[in-house]
Amino acid sequence: MPNGKEPLKHRIAMWGLKAMAAMPLWVLYRLSDVAFIIIYYIAGYRRSTVKKNLTESFPEKSPKEIKHIARLFYRNFTDNVVETVKLLNISDREMQRRMVFEGTEITDSYLAQGRHVVAYFSHCGNWEWAPSLTLWSRFRQDASVSFCQIYRPLRNKWMDALMLRLRSRFGSVSLTKRMAFLDLLRYKKQGIATMTGFMSDQKPSHGDTVHVVRFLNHPTAVITGTETVARRLNAAVVYWDMHKTSRGHYRIKTRLITDNPAQLPEFAITDRYISLLQQTIEADPAIWLWTHKRWKNKVTFADNGTKIS
């Protein structure tokens, strides 16, 4: 950037976001209501993709039920946007009131032993509020513990920097997916226990071993890298089961998958996670992110054991 100054368009955008974030959430939800009308009824943003995903995932549901779920999804979608902006101006107390964690004593007990903890979570509810876990842990201010999340850098550098700022709001550290394992090994060598969240409902990365499961009525190649990291760190593994209790209020229940990965067969951890995630989605389909073409690249169970190209 010339003279080290941020471009004017970026400064204007940040001023606008900060002005939005200063508004109370009830005002932001009115903006979300307007955005819902524009995105769903006028622009029709990815409506065909959402309808196709829902119809194929829940063949037992009627067209009326599918339409109802889709409408609720888009309402959650626009709420998620304004709630994420609110991270620029929200108190710790307000966040604790709105994002409640249950079972943090489970993960704290492993951190107290110097163990690493791997948390599976997904694009359910408001995943951008999940880093507020630190507000619920007794190790928040403890230098012997680091709270981390794995992320994929965005192509837009300004947006990438903004999201990193939002995700570090409560003191956690963002690790790039490409370097995450090496970063976690570095923490281990320094004697620092880590509590790390992995978004594991996306498509597998290049080079991952193909593991196909039946997920939401589709043969689906799922991420196996999270399990690989957990095994190499001998980490306790949990699932963050997120539910939306009301508008602007969420609850994450910590569910233990295993505290001894080596005792389980290969991919057993991944299979358990996928089973738990499906239960979460089936309980409230509208809270999952349906706009991606998750099943664009078809796979079969015969693909198991190959590599993602």
Description:
- The chain is an alpha/beta fold and 309 residues long.
- 41% of the residues lie in helices and 18% in strands.
- The chain has one domain (2-303).
- The chain has helices spanning 8-21, 25-42, 47-57, 63-85, 92-98, 104-112, 157-167, 180-189, 225-233, 268-283; strands spanning 99-102, 117-121, 145-151, 173-176, 193-199, 212-215, 218-221, 236-246, 249-258.
- Strands 1-9-8-2-5-3-4 form a seven-stranded mixed β-sheet. Strands 6-7 form a two-stranded antiparallel ribbon.
- The two termini are 36 Å apart.
- 31% of the residues are buried.
- The model has no long low-confidence stretch (mean pLDDT 95).
SSE layout and pairing:
Layout: H1 8-21, H2 25-42, H3 47-57, H4 63-85, H5 92-98, E1 99-102, H6 104-112, E2 117-121, E3 145-151, H7 157-167, E4 173-176, H8 180-189, E5 193-199, E6 212-215, E7 218-221, H9 225-233, E8 236-246, E9 249-258, H10 268-283
